[in-house]
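ESCALATION

Customer reports they have been waiting on this structure for their group meeting. Please prioritize. Original submission:
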Amino acid sequence: MRPTALPDHVYAVLKQKILSCALPPNERLVEKNLCAELRVSRTPLREALNRLSHEELVSFQPHAGYRVAGISLDGFRNLIELRAIVEPQAAALAAERATPADIQTLRAQATLQHDPSEEHTFVQYCQANSRFHLLVVRCARNPMLENIVMSALDMYQRPTYLRIGRQMDPTNPSSKHHAIVDAIEQHDTQSAREIMYQHIRGGGERIMKALKAAHIA
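Update from on-call: job pushed to the front of the queue and completed.
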């Protein structure tokens, strides 16, 4: 691996571990242990940790070092509000700009599969849901919007890996997805915006209730 690529690799590995909760929320990060595990020196490790700190995935405390960011009600509420502001407008832009090929791709990804008898499929279900939402934003042809939503969706999945909020959404998100695709296909910007907004707020409220039930403060 090229030296210039090493910090990027360390960053990517640590970010995936944090988002999947392989490194649990609030866990202290011992640099010596991470260096040994990743087989790197402290220089690329600290560069990666600084990047993660800017993304609020880790926090730094003097004399205590780095710690994985926790999950809080306020933090999750912020994610819901961000998504509710950005994604409905992205859906409206998608209704203006999506190509027939885009519509075909969205339609193919709109239905979410989940087998309640197999717990691991719920994570796949949530990942498929994120892929659909990201595809909608990509139809807007705005890389800045895409980066914002991608980051929010990554953070949004963290409770799932802690087995919080794994109950199925009773509102049937697949039907909402197809309704969003219908609006985009019909170039109906108002409907695309409104359906996406209701979809995000409804799902967000469900997970907020699960976080409260799990005594997340």
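Sent to customer with the following note: Residues 73-97 form the longest helix (25 residues).
Escalation resolved.
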